[in-house]
Amino acid sequence: MQFTKEELTALLNGEKPLQLAGLDLSKASLNNVELSKADLSGANLNRAFLDGAKLRYANLNHANLEDASLTDANFHNATFIEADLSGANLSHADLSGADRSGANLCHTNLTGANWNGIKLTGATYNGFTQWADGFDPVAAGANLTS
Q1: What is the total count of domains within the chain?
Q2: I need a surface site. Which of 6, 51, 52, 128 has the fewest CB within 10 A?
Q3: pTM for this structure?
Q4: For residue 7, what are the domain limits?
């Protein structure tokens, strides 16, 4: 079920931290929203717009963020364990301290991102993944896939 604009606004104005686990938020316009500490585990954020959003300490484990627009978003200390970020645009995002263990990073744009303290153990990427200058995904624990 997708939400109307009014339903989404009411949902985002709910009691914090937001409990959005498993919800279908695909294609939702969530630019610049405050989602810090939100539980988005298992949520469908496919093709969602979260540019400039604040997701510090958010739980995005097992979430579908395929083809999502996440430029300039703040994911400080967020968890993305086994999340699908394939094709997502995370350019200039703050990923400091984030745990992306087991995440799918194939075709993902990560240019200009802040990688300080990130965990990528078991994450996968391919030759189309774009990294921040000087970042070594293998040293961070990621695996190249074909």
Answers
A1: 1
A2: 6
A3: 0.95
A4: 1-146
